[in-house]
Design goal:
Layout (H helix, E strand, L loop, with lengths): L9 H5 L10 E2 L2 E2 L5 E2 H18 L2 H17 L9 E2 L12 H15 L5 H14 L9 H14 L9 H19 L10 E2 L5 H13 L2 H18 L14 E2 L9 E2 H18 L2 H11 L13 E2 L4 E2 L2 E3 L2 E3 L4 H23 L15 E4 L2 E4 L3
């Protein structure tokens, strides 16, 4: 069996300075010319918080403080978030995208419920509490999913004084509405296309089901995860939708260039699906998807860099994109931490509770090396 690396934040530290995490790399060297983004600092905050929970190491806490400080600085007076910052610490936008908002809510919600010190969690909670007023105005499906992830994490440790349950219902209902509109007998997805970060959409529905107990959300999460599986595993290994054309309904799926973020989010989705349903097929798929980083991909090439402990940006037609940007590094670490969570879940074999006891997946099939969960 392949010996997989342990969690190592060396490269993450190398592309982080006192301001935050630098957005891009020139091969394995931080590219200061292109500055920073709130998007990356939010995702890096989740990684640092998870790692601190594992280690209790002051160095990991320092990373979390740096990333949270960046997010705090990115907050505008109206409690939206600027996104793109130059190396000279000047923001280039007055307001970031909806997805930037969603990632911020995800990161702050996770931080509120994390094992970070209380005085750190209080700052994240203040950011979250002030910004939640915009959740009902979101039109981006991914922003809605990110925001639900943040809300669900928030509710793990904090009283629902802002009607977050109702807000989760509204966001999840909006995604199920999109699903009904875009789907037909051969296409079961939230949009008439698949682009980047696709796995975050069913991830949001899974946590909505977990918090609310609503089986409609659980069924949507499972059925769209199963459809995504059919798209991503036609040959028994993870074959990501390429960003050189994406996957438009009724057209062929683009296969180049496969972005690392999609591999990372896909691993996280399957681990989450296993945690909630206890269907072992999802655990098998998580491990199979994780091997994408180690050569089990269309190019049969390593995407993880064992020297830098970083990760390359994409699998392309003529090889790997040798740049190692923040998004790729963080996406790999999120996947790696998810696999560690999966190991723990399978070791302790925690029973499934609540609504999930009623859901039994018996329609399974095998393709290649990976078990695929059937889509009904």
């Amino acid at each position: 069996m392949m010996q997989l690396p342990s969690v190592d934040l060396s490269y993450l530290r190398s592309i982080t300075d006192c301001t935050g995490i630098i957005q891009h790399g020139v091969h394995g060297v931080p590219n200061r010319k292109l500055g920073y983004t709130t998007d990356d600092n939010c995702r890096a905050l989740i990684v640092a918080a998870k790692q601190y929970e594992r280690t209790g190491d002051r160095a990991d806490l320092d990373l979390a403080l740096t990333y949270l400080s960046f997010v705090h600085y990115a907050e505008s007076p109206d409690h939206t978030f600027r996104n793109v910052m130059t190396y000279q610490r000047e923001f280039l936008d007055d307001a970031g995208t909806e997805d930037c908002y969603g990632r911020t809510m995800w990161a702050c919600g996770y931080t509120v419920s994390s094992g970070l010190p209380e005085n750190v969690r209080i700052v994240a909670q203040k950011i979250f509490d002030a910004a939640v007023i915009w959740a009902g105005d979101l039109s981006s499906p991914r922003a809605r999913a990110y925001t639900m992830l943040g809300m669900c994490h928030y509710l793990k440790t904090t009283e629902d004084s802002m009607d977050l349950q109702d807000k989760i219902h509204a966001l999840a209902d909006s995604l199920t509405g999109l699903l009904r509109t875009a789907s037909d007998k051969d296409w079961h997805w939230y949009e008439p296309y698949m682009t980047y970060g696709n796995a975050i959409l069913p991830s949001g529905m899974f946590v909505a089901a977990e918090v609310t107990g609503k089986k409609t959300y659980l069924n949507a999460a499972i059925s769209t995860t199963d459809f995504l599986t059919e798209v991503l595993f036609p040959n028994g290994y993870l074959d990501i939708v390429g960003n050189n054309g994406w996957y438009i309904k009724d057209r062929a799926k683009a296969i180049w260039d496969q972005q690392t973020i999609d591999a990372g989010y896909t691993v996280c989705l399957y681990v989450q699906a296993y945690r909630i349903t206890r269907n072992k097929a999802y655990a098998d798929l998580a491990r199979c998807a994780y091997e994408w980083f180690f050569g089990k991909n269309r190019r049969e090439i390593y995407v993880y860099d064992p020297v830098s402990k970083g990760c390359y940006d994409a699998v392309c037609e003529h090889g790997v994109n040798l740049n190692q940007g923040a998004e790729s590094c963080i996406s790999f670490l999120l996947a790696q931490l998810a696999i560690e969570e999966l190991d723990t879940l399978q070791d302790i074999n925690v029973p499934v509770g609540g609504v999930y006891n009623e859901r039994c997946r018996d329609n399974e099939k095998v393709s290649g090396d990976c078990k695929l969960v059937g889509h009904n």
